[in-house]
Amino acid sequence: MRQRSKGSAQSKPSSRTETSNSEDTVVLVAKRSKYVILALFVLVAYGTWSVYQHQFLNLPKPLGAEEVGKRGFSEHEAIKHVKALTQLGPHPVGSDALDHALQYVLQATETIKEKAHWEVDVELDLFHAKSGANLMVGGLFKGKTLVYSDLNHIVLRISPKYASEATENAILVSSHIDTVFSAEGAGDCSSCVAVMLELARGVSQWAHGFKSAVIFLFNTGEEEGLNGAHSFITQHPWSDTVTMAIDLEAMGVGGKSGIFQAGPQPWAIENFALAAKYPSGQIVAQDVFKSGAIKSATDFQVYQELAGLSGLDFAYADNTAVYHTKNDKLKLLKPGSLQHLGENMLAFLLKVATSAHLPKGKATDSRGKSGQDTAIYFDILGAYMVVFRQRFARMLYNSVILQSILIWTTSLFMGGYSAMVSLALSSLSLILMWICAIGFSLLVAFVLPLVSSSPIPFVSSPWLVVGLFGAPAVLGAFTGQHVGYLILVKYLTKTFSRRNVNLPFVVQDDLAKLDAERWLFKAGLMQWFVLLIVGNFYKIGSSYLALVWLASPAFAYGLLEATLSPARLPKPLKTVTLLIGLSVPFLLSSGIIVHLVATLIGSAVRLERNPGSNPEWLGNVIIAVLIAAIACLTLVYLLSYIHISGAKVPLITVTCILFGISLTMVQLGVVPPFTEDTARAVNVVHVVDMGGANDKKQEPVSRISLFSTTPGNLIKEVEQIGEGFVCGTDEPLDFVTFSVKYGCWSDKNANIGWHELDIPLIHVENDTKGDNRVTHVSIDTKVSTRWTLGINTDEIEDFHLKGAGGPEELVPIGDKSNADGWHIIQFSGGKKAPRKFSLTLFWANNHTHKSQKKDSNTEQPLLKLRTDVDRITSPTETVLKKLPQWCSLFGKSTSPLTLAFLSSLSIDF
Predict the structure, then answer these.
(1) Which helix (H) or strand (E) is 868 found in, with range?
(2) Do residues 806 and 835 lie in contact, with contact meaning Cβ atoms separated by under 8 Å?
(3) Per mean pLDDT, which range of 747-751, 797-801, 847-851 is the poorest?
(4) Of 370, 574, 588, 692, which has the fewest beta carbons less than 10 angstroms from its beta carbon?
């Protein structure tokens, strides 16, 4: 047998053949230089960071008013609005600060109206929304009815003065002025309001050439359950003219505002891709958001499901750990953030508002389903956006899948039994790779809470996860793949010994190593091939990534390496194959991966929706599994090059050192888990608990409650606060919308700061028993215009709610969803919202007092009520002053304010 030299041993496996007259002598060395592998890893790391830098961190220069003129967008002008709104401090619904914020926005819009182009009509409406109820059941709304009253919005409509038909075909741009009680809201969403004001100023100079009106909705009540958007859609007369909705949101502070929801009609995203100067948007984010992995909702859900509108949903997502905390502040808003969104939005509005082809009619049916050919979209380095439709994607994916099946079938047919066994063994290496990568990372996830002061010590320094989880994941992936490689080499050595009996054993062994390397590379193709099939079947938008990670390496391999002939001896894989094959996949996905991991790490601050209900290691496990999966998916091709190189020992050494340094830094507290700018979410609530029914005379029990949505105990915090706090699981608290199973409590001075007249009343007016039992209950929330009522659906079949003394029905009779045996009414309103209500309960015909806790004999109440008061009592103030700087109050629609009253009505009232 004769074989020519196959390259230098410095960069790739080499084979050399010497022949003589008497017999053939073959000398083959299968070895790749460790320096080549080192260079490849450095290239991957540097390239990944460079892509992320350009795609998510590269912001435009902020522009001044003089630079942009009357018709452009100026961040310098927009930032003035952010400063004015944040100086008001937190401005939740019902607060004086929100009234001041509304007045500021109103004055700004009046100025826009005064300075508009003379051929442009600017209409301004200070809209007062009457009471209403959001009965949507999708996502976070399952088992809930969101009731609101006395909300004020500012609505601005800009249209050409001499084209009245434009007002019948409007584009809605929406965001919210209100914040949660714990944040001044620089990101969420004063930045959005500021962008809208500056956009409206620019649009007012362009609109004389528009074919559609642009409506800017500055709503309130979003933080309490999307109530502003709901009241506009259901009550405002202009809502019927809206044909497209654009929502601006934030789940962090600043950075690039990217599209994370689009559609269902593809027209908006297609035109955005054509118009935007700095396009930013990923369907991967849309898939993650709609999967429910992120427990949140935006006004866009109302516009899609309730109004049947299509459009775009933007969000700032930089530094997500500050979301709804004190650190959502102006100083963390990166320069260029507003300029990026503003220029993109202005260009987009100018394009679509002048178009005669704006889609009309509902994009979804009454169930929120769409029959449209939806769009798949992603940006490249924040400079270009690719958009194609699902129908085309399916054709493309099916074509690639069929071609792959044909190639694999032909290859296995020509390779025979040996090829099929080799494929099976290479697939085994994939399985072992995943098992070891996840196993090594999970081991760290369980160890971290034992050696660290916080079970999630990487929140303030996300780069720590590279050493804590990334290094073990890479080491595990390589270990598992190498075990599979050794098994495959053993089998292939036997195969070559049978086929080539005249070759020396050393040569047969080296040929087996070369062939095993090629099979491991092809196993990576098989992995992405399976993912493409699954994604195509379930119509997952981000399946384009599976296509890229399959097609690009397959093309490079087919161009430079492939042969279907089993008679040819294996050649060494070329380094250029890896470079060509992985350049496009890393370009399109590495930035997204880093951004996704950073977002998940920031979200760990609010991981515990029910404090104490999950083990401390849960957050680590989620991040560990994600990083292990990323390592297995993206490094499968690169790792296949290491097994015949001298890089095995350096790889093991480097990963172990990196992990050791990271773990040591965590154990010694060199890097704190939280800082003043990246705070732990800790809530301080003065709780007054009435326990049983109000009709029975019972003394209230009051205490100061401390709990955290961030995993970990509160011992360190309590030591610094003092004030007699005791921590544990002995006194769980039911806050109706969530429960605190682990928390801290103190009764020091807890009997002051509140009055018995503030305690809400639940009173049974009359009870008609029988087969169709009906009970009328009156509820008086006293000083509270923000309250939550839980209705036991194991006992109550239906109910309706109305304001006391009025005919208006807030929650009508009808089908209502439930969650865990409860239907929750969340009410929020302004200062003039009603405080007295009439509740009519219709009992289930077969009710038999089924409501008992599964883990005890305690019977669940019929009704449970929590009323919230935005008041800081003197004992609460003392605790807040002593709260460590690395802690922050955390606000959301389901959490209590700083003073909460708890009442209930038992079943046997």
Answers:
(1) strand 863-869
(2) no
(3) 847-851
(4) 692
336: left (phi over 0), alpha (psi -120 to 50) or beta: left
Given a cut of 70, whether residue 775 has pLDDT beyond it is yes
Across residues 117-125, what is the average pLDDT? 97
pLDDT tens-digit map of 41-84 = 999 999 999 999 999 999 999 999 999 999 999 999 999 999 99
Residue 480 to residues 549, 587, 752: CA-CA distances in angstroms?
A: 21, 27, 63
Three-state DSSP state, 86: helix
CA distances to 159, 236, 244, 248, 444 from 239, rounded to whole Å, are: 15, 6, 11, 18, 53
Locate 559 and state its tokens: 């161009």
Please report, for residues 103, 136, 536, 817, 818, the alpha-carbon distance to residue 145 in angstroms, rounded to integers and kept in the order given: 30, 8, 36, 9, 10
Percent of the chain with pLDDT over 70: 93
HSE, side-chain direction, 13 A CA sphere, residue 455: 25
Alpha-carbon span 531 to 520, nearest angstrom: 17
Question: Residue 394 CA to chain centroid, in angstroms?
Answer: 26
Three-class SS state of 19: strand
Q: Which long-range contacts (CB under 8 A, 24 or more apart) does 503-508 make?
A: 503/1, 503/26, 504/26, 506/28, 507/26, 507/27, 507/28
Q: Tokens in use for 374? A: 């939806």
The encoded tokens of residue 569 equal 């001896």
**Closest CA relative to residue 900, chosen from 718, 708, 689, 714:** 689
DSSP tag of 756: G
Predicted confidence at residue 226, as pLDDT, reads 96
The CA distance from 391 to 518, in Å, is 35
pTM value is 0.93
Close Cβ partners of 255 (under 8 Å, ≥ 6 residues apart):
56, 57, 59, 316, 317, 318, 319, 334, 337
For residues 254 and 189, what is the distance between their CA atoms, to the nearest angstrom? 10
Structure tokens at 49: 């960071």
Query: Residues 754, 688: contact at Cβ < 8 Å?
Result: yes
Helices 75-86, 191-203: inter-axial angle, 10-degree rounding: 140
User: What is the Cα–Cα distance from 728 to 726, expressed in whole angstroms?
Assistant: 7
Q: pLDDT, tens digit, for every residue of 288-322?
A: 998 888 888 999 999 999 999 999 999 999 999 99
Terminal Cα distance for the chain, rounded: 96
In angstroms, the CA 497 to CA 499 distance is 6
Residue pair 369/102 in contact (Cβ under 8 Å)? The answer is no
Distance CA 617, CA 456 (A): 8
Q: Given this model, what pLDDT does residue 66 score?
A: 95
Full DSSP string of 705-730 = EEEESSSS--HHHHHHH-TT-EEESS
